[in-house]
């Protein structure tokens, strides 16, 4: 099926904002329970750490956290 991958990436990043938490060092982290292709693209865009690592979560970059919050508010009306 053909679909707009950028829109999927945008919505996934918005949902990452909903589920991320601060680790003990204060860095934002999110569980990597989203589509692998989407997670790879978000990593390539610099929003998250490499999802292929063994950790159950990914680090969210400061830019990724800012963008995720912006997109969440845009799409889900906070």
Question: What would you say this structure looks like, in words?
Answer:
- The protein has 78 residues and is mainly alpha-helical.
- The protein has one domain: Arc Repressor Mutant, subunit A, CATH 1.10.10.
- It is 50% helix and 12% strand.
- The protein is built from 3 helices and 3 strands; from the N terminus they run H-E-E-H-E-H.
- It has helices at residues 5-19, 36-44, 62-76, and strands at 21-22, 28-31, 57-59.
- The protein has a 3-stranded antiparallel beta sheet with strand order 1-2-3, with helices on one face.
- Helix 1 (5-19) crosses helix 2 and helix 1 crosses helix 3 (62-76).
- The termini are far apart.
- The mean pLDDT is 92.
Topology:
Blueprint: H1 5-19, E1 21-22, E2 28-31, H2 36-44, E3 57-59, H3 62-76
Antiparallel strand pairs: 1-2, 2-3
Helix pairs in contact: 1-2, 1-3
The tally of helices reads 3
Distance between the termini: 31 Å
What can be said about the biggest beta sheet?
Answer: 3 strands, antiparallel
Strand content: 5-15%
The radius of gyration computed from the alpha-carbon positions, rounded to a whole number of angstroms, is 12 Å
> Uncertain spans, ≥5 residues at pLDDT below 50?
none
Q: Would you list the SSEs in sequence order as H and E?
A: HEEHEH
Strand order of the largest sheet: 1-2-3
What value does the average pLDDT take?
Answer: 92
Count all strands and give the number: 3
CATH class: Mainly Alpha
**Can you tell me the overall shape?**
globular
* Total tally of structural domains: 1
Structural class: mainly alpha
């Amino acid at each position: 099926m053909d679909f707009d991958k950028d829109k999927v990436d945008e919505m996934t990043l918005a949902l990452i904002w909903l589920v991320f938490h601060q680790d003990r060092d204060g860095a934002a982290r999110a569980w990597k329970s989203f589509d692998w292709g989407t997670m790879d693209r978000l990593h390539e865009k610099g929003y998250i750490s490499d999802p292929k690592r063994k950790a159950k979560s990914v680090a969210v970059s400061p830019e990724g956290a800012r963008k995720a919050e912006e997109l969440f508010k845009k799409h889900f009306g906070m």
